[in-house]
TrEMBL record:
The chain crosses the membrane at residues 6-27, 48-66, 78-96, 108-131, 137-159, 166-185, 197-217, 229-252, 264-284, 322-344, 350-372. This is Undecaprenyl/decaprenyl-phosphate alpha-N-acetylglucosaminyl 1-phosphate transferase. Mg(2+) binds at residues 158, 226. Its cofactor is Mg(2+). Keywords: Cell membrane, Magnesium, Membrane, Metal-binding, Transferase, Transmembrane, Transmembrane helix. InterPro entries: Glycosyl_transferase_4, PNAcMuramoyl-5peptid_Trfase_CS. One of its GO terms (cellular component) is plasma membrane. It comes from Microbacterium ulmi. CDD domains: GT_WecA_like. GO terms for biological process: cell wall macromolecule biosynthetic process; cell wall organization; lipopolysaccharide biosynthetic process. The keyword Glycosyltransferase does not apply. The keyword Magnesium applies. It is a multi-pass membrane protein. PANTHER family: PHOSPHO-N-ACETYLMURAMOYL-PENTAPEPTIDE-TRANSFERASE, UNDECAPRENYL-PHOSPHATE ALPHA-N-ACETYLGLUCOSAMINYL 1-PHOSPHATE TRANSFERASE.
Amino acid sequence: MKQYIFTIILTAAITFCLSWGVWRLSLKYKLYPGIRERDVHKNPTPRLGGIAMFIGVVVTFAVSSQHPYFALFWADPWPIVAILGATLLIVVVGVLDDLIDLDWMIKLGAQFLAAGIIAWFGKLQILSLPIGGMTVWSSWVSFTLTVFAIVIVMNAVNFIDGLDGLVAGVVLIANIVFFAYSYLLLRDTGSSTYAHLASFIAAVLIGVCIGFLPLNWSPAKLFMGDGGALMLGLLMATSAVAITGALTPSAINPDSPDGFGRSQILGAFIPILLPIVVVLLPLLDFGMAVVRRMGAGKSPFSPDRKHLHHRMLDMGHSDRDAVLIFYAWTAVVSLAVLIMYIGTTADWPGLYLAGIAFGLVGAAACLVVTFLPSRRNVRRLAPEVVP
């Protein structure tokens, strides 16, 4: 565990220093766009934080290559080379979009290319499905599922990048839970080491978000831009795909004597369900945006001001309150499923039920807070309504 703690601290320190440098240089050379109609912030703010975040990721990967503890996943360096190459591609395209506003088809094509690099050259693909321990029946099906999963998560994370500290905080919480899950999964599957690529990527993402948040917290001095948001989504999806390699068909088969969930209904599904749940809110926003825009005869990637965080602002929440509510939703949903997973693998039905209860109570509390904004915030938006 101490190796992962070192990874988090190192990544956070590098990212913070580089983010501060990018912020200062952006201000000096006026590398920031004007205010767009859909923007929430009022002052022009640099959007090049993704550059600092990417360099932080690369440096940490380079350091890990010299550490004996991580030698296992460096024994075959091609998956890491593919991940970093795909990440470089998506950051370059994202930064260009932040500076000159690329056509959405170019961005989408780059996303599919980056996902294809990881799935094809990196050989990181979804191999098992939680349906009776089913393996994916075709290499092309596995490749296609993986590419689409990565592209969807990339866009889902990017779509919620609209408020100060929102994406960095949501990704931070999600990856803390995912790191705990991947660490426990390696233990439960009898792995001889905890040095796994999925856990390492999650630790790197935790460090990146910790290092970037001080400059991105409201009022933000620096935005991560499309380059940073797409990078976070790409790496999150890659770590989720990578962890499926630790899942044998028997492990997710409820009929197998070695499988999970012999006494719980959802037990066999949790190992694959949790990586999806940690990005549930971004996925929900992404799905709603695609349906809304296509229903209006527009491109699914045409920007608008109707995302979930925009709707929360219209309901009367302040920027910070809306961000904190997103944090709460992410924590409640992901922690509930993690608790259920622990209860399942430890064969503790009580803990499994506690996870369900925590999720229901937490969701109810989040609903109340979401739909009942404070009188102070309602008065700020419409003083004539609240005397």
